[in-house]
Write a structure and sequence with these properties.
79% of the residues lie in helices and 0% in strands. With 164 residues, the protein is mostly helical.
């Protein structure tokens, strides 16, 4: 397997693992990103959800994002020209932006847990709004990866057929 093909394999595998994590581990918990979703939980369940998000779910999301970034970094030396190199660099910048946004969500969640413990659901309305806004920003930026892959393809860097 050529170095470029191996690079593609690693990049696509990292993104596939991230997408799988998003859909199977993260998304099921997003139903609680609204007051309506939380009202059906007991106080213990709400605290458990927040703790799980802070200690497991969001860190796992950051790890998958980082893994995709590492795969892109490893792929960069195999870019055949300055345009493809710049495209991968912009995807790396996007990856950094996403890591920062996901970490910001973790900070919001930690503050929300403190607010919930001190004042209940009424105290976390602002945090829920901040999480929704942050998640919308994350989703928007995640969708931009497809533009990067499309641009690489338009620049002649195609995914080997055995990966499709």
């Amino acid at each position: 397997m050529s170095e470029t093909a191996e690079g593609w394999r690693r990049v696509l595998a990292a993104f596939d693992q991230w997408i799988t994590y998003e859909s199977t581990e993260f998304m099921p918990w997003t139903g609680y990103f609204s007051m309506e979703g939380l009202r059906g939980l007991t106080s213990s369940e709400t605290i458990g959800w927040m703790n799980s998000m802070i200690s497991e779910i969001i860190p796992g999301r950051v790890d998958k994002c980082r893994d995709a970034g590492v795969a892109l970094e490893d792929f960069l030396p195999f870019m055949p020209n300055p345009e493809t190199q710049e495209t991968v660099r912009s995807m790396l910048d996007l990856n950094s932006r996403l890591q920062d946004a996901i970490l910001a969500m973790s900070d919001i969640m930690s503050n929300m847990l403190d607010d919930y413990r001190s004042g209940g659901l009424d105290e976390i309305v602002g945090s829920l709004e901040a999480i929704a806004t942050t998640e919308e920003d994350i989703r928007h930026h995640m969708s931009l990866y497809s533009k990067g892959f499309t641009k690489l393809q338009s620049l002649g860097l195609t995914i080997p057929d055995d990966f499709l």
